[in-house]
Amino acid sequence: MTRVLLIAPQWIGDAVMAQPLVALLAARGEQISAIGLPGVAPVLRAMPGVSEVIEAPFAHGQLDFALRRRIAKPLRGAGFQRAYILGNNLKSRLVPWLARIPQRIGYTGEARGLLLTDRFEADEPARVRAASEPMALSPVSCRVPRPQSQGRPDMREHYAALAQVDGASSPVSIPEPTLHISPDEAEAVRRRFGLPPRWIALCPGAEYGPAKQWPVAHYAALAIQARQAGYAVAVLGAPRDAAAGAEIATQAPGSVNLCGATRLADAIALLASCSGAVSNDSGLMHVAAALQRPTVGVYGSTDPRHTPPAAHHSATLWLHLDCSPCFQRTCPLGHLDCLKHISPDAVWCELARLMSAAAPH
């Protein structure tokens, strides 16, 4: 059995989208240990195919050379034959290099791929195709397939392409990102937070900025519709999302604001127990979809062809206006029409459809 080290991405959503690579490696018998930041480690622990998770508390933007050397030291002589490095910067390559792992695979990225033994070019045509294409909502509310975003590959394909080393053939398709939480754990965490069996998760945050955030008033209107349909509603997010969660709870009485009240491991377990989830293009959207919960992702400045949720029971709503995707943190035109004009009614209809389709018959 080949023992390999995976250097995970630093963002939650990217880590989820790396799971197809893990699945491909595990399917051919590679034993995978993963190194990730503490904020990503709970995702890695829920990832089928990962046998060991090593937390690496690197400071953002810092070299942390001494810490990287300490982490690398016990990895020497541990039998690692390969490292798959999913970051594009030089720092992400230091641990496997210091650990003297003989084969280090990644994208050229920074410093012309220095410290890599097998270099992939990020602008090469995608070698694999996702098992199902994301769907987009046009301005006339028609769900239609769209071609790959020019210059921005599907990130699942981007990571999965690294599996093609030493003459490995290109798979016809890649698996959808998948996470797993045991039903007993999900049930215990749901009960601990006082949520009933039928509940909807709302995730109004987005790390990148307000151009990815569906209006709080729309979330509140959606929460009212969900409660009228007999579902409890809880708002999940980081401490920075607490104000948005409080506003949703104020506008939609009876909704529970859990933003900042959960650790990421708790949030993952909660999402595993929910009836459905609505989210901006964020890490929690990717988690919910990979947990195979009915999930609606609302897209504004970003592109669902580039960062789609896992397609188990998900849909993306995206107007694709002339000005979107702009990939800006804030709306450069000041109107945020790409999100404001996605109505709560449209989102609720899509979520209700997904929940109905996923329900046992």
UniProtKB/TrEMBL annotation:
Keywords: Glycosyltransferase, Transferase
GO molecular function terms attached to this record: ADP-heptose-lipopolysaccharide heptosyltransferase activity
Catalysed transformations (reactions): an L-alpha-D-Hep-(1->5)-[alpha-Kdo-(2->4)]-alpha-Kdo-(2->6)-lipid A + ADP-L-glycero-beta-D-manno-heptose = an L-alpha-D-Hep-(1->3)-L-alpha-D-Hep-(1->5)-[alpha-Kdo-(2->4)]-alpha-Kdo-(2->6)-lipid A + ADP + H(+)
Keyword flag Cytoplasm: no
One Pfam family it belongs to: Glyco_transf_9
Enzyme class: transferase
Enzyme Commission identifier(s): 2.4.99.24
Gene Ontology CC: one annotated term: cytosol
Transferase recorded as keyword: yes
UniProt xrefs under CDD domains: GT9_LPS_heptosyltransferase
A biological-process GO annotation: lipopolysaccharide core region biosynthetic process
Protein family according to the UniProt entry: Belongs to the glycosyltransferase 9 family.
The name this protein goes by in its record: lipopolysaccharide heptosyltransferase II
